[in-house]
Amino acid sequence: MKTPAECTTMAELRAEIDRLDEELVALFAQRVGYIDRAVAIKTGIGLPARINSRVEEVIANVRRHAVANGLPPDKIEKLWRKLVDWSIEREESHLGKDAE
């Protein structure tokens, strides 16, 4: 693993980006495991897929993490809302659609 400053060629930069992309996909796969477990738990206690208060809590957390890491919170929020919506769609495919 090289830091960005240690990369001296585009090939090195691309290799590091590809490495990070692989790690990110693995992390997303782990996240999906938790989403799928949420389906099982929500089924047992009668919760819907979308819980708006939780969505906003997740977004607030991500915005805080973005700021702490020097990233634009509005851009990260936009990206994360897509991830959250995808996760909810996955849950809804098992639980059905329901409003909070």
Summarize the structure.
Residues 4-95 form the Chorismate mutase domain. By secondary structure, this protein is mainly alpha-helical.
Question: Would you kindly provide a written description of the structure presented here, covering whatever features stand out?
Answer:
It is a single chain. By secondary structure, this protein is an all-alpha fold. It has a single domain, classed as Chorismate Mutase Domain, subunit A. Helices cover 76% and strands 0% of the residues. The chain has 3 helices and no strands. α1 (10-45) crosses α3 (73-95) and α2 (52-68) runs antiparallel to α3 (73-95). The radius of gyration is 17 Å and the shape is elongated. The model has no long low-confidence stretch (mean pLDDT 95). Substrate binds at residues 14, 31, 42, 91. This is chorismate mutase. One of its GO terms (molecular function) is chorismate mutase activity. One of its GO terms (biological process) is chorismate metabolic process. It is an enzyme of class 5 (isomerase).
Radius of gyration using CA atoms only: 17 Å
- Total number of distinct structural domains: 1
Provide the helix percentage: over 70%
CATH second-level architecture: Up-down Bundle
Number of H/I helices: 3
Count the beta strands: 0
Strand composition percent: under 5%
SS content category: mainly alpha
For CATH, the homologous superfamily is named as: Chorismate mutase
Main sheet record: none
Distance between the termini: 44 Å
Tell me the series of helices and strands, N- to C-terminal.
HHH
Low-confidence stretches: none
